[in-house]
Amino acid sequence: MEVISARVPKEIAEALREIEREEKADRATVVRKLLARAIEEWRVERALRLYRRGRVTLWRAARLAGVTLREMMDLAAREGTQFQYSERDLEEDIEAAMRE
User: Cα–Cα distance between 62 and 81 in angstroms, integer?
Assistant: First the structure.
């Protein structure tokens, strides 16, 4: 493991203490859980942003986000993202699926 330290505003420190009490967990555990969740959310947001811009296929977006294609479809639908799928996208997705 690697040690990471950061200065945070008082409000965040207070919120961490509240979570520690509620979860009955030490600060390091709470921070690791919150950081892991934030990274997952960031990956999904980034993948959806790239997909909306037409930079990646839905399949590739799912891989970037670390979720299944079905999960990515659900996430995109929940966000109101318009599905865009070309014949080229289908070919790329089939090739990617065959490699895995």
Answer: 14
Distant-in-sequence, close-in-space partners of 45: CB < 8 Å, separation ≥ 6: none
Q: Residue 31: give the domain boundaries.
A: 10-99
67: in domain: yes
pTM, full prediction:
0.77
pLDDT number for residue 91: 81
Residue 20 is predicted with a pLDDT of 97
Question: Running DSSP on this structure, what letter comes out for residue 18?
Answer: H
Number of domains in the chain: 1
Residue with tokens 């009490």: 21
36-45 pLDDT tens trace? 999 999 999 9
Closest residue by Cα to residue 68 from 77, 59, 56: 59
Q: Is 73 helix (H, G, I), strand (E, B) or coil?
A: helix
Residue 3 lies in a domain: no
